[in-house]
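Before relying on records like the one below, remember that each one covers exactly one chain. Contacts with other chains, cofactors or solvent are not represented anywhere in the record.
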Amino acid sequence: MQKIDIKTLKENVVSLFDDKWALITAGNKESYNTMTASWGTMGELWNKDVCFAFIRPQRYTYEFMEREDYFTVSFFPEEYKKALGFCGRYSGRDYDKAKQTGLTPMEVGNSMSFEEGEIILLCKKLYIQDIDPKGFIDESIDAACYPQKDYHRMYVGEIVEAYIK
């Protein structure tokens, strides 16, 4: 992996999340969890380069995100789409996702990611906010995305390190 300045990343952020998906991972080598995300974004906020991650409270990764100060957001080549699908469908409470998918865990700064990632962002939590349904201007979003009323928690993380393969 080559460390880069995040401002030099050439990929389209919308395509990264929407088309490639990502793994959001928090924890350490003794205890971590990862989950697939197709929602998220990156940008500049509060004079910092940031990444936004959205996690529902029933997800196992939520516990790790609450406990840890750092998390990673990692993007993978197309051939890992099946592995990312597994990580999105099954809980780390019940499965060793690395073992099931063949992904190779590795430490990245104060968190974890996977050797197969082609873009890895190490993020330090700056802010959390629960999605409040009263804030929806377009009420169809609530009905379409939250039929169970299980609203995401938004994490804003400062991108403190970025790597590409």
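The chain is about 20% helix and 40% strand.
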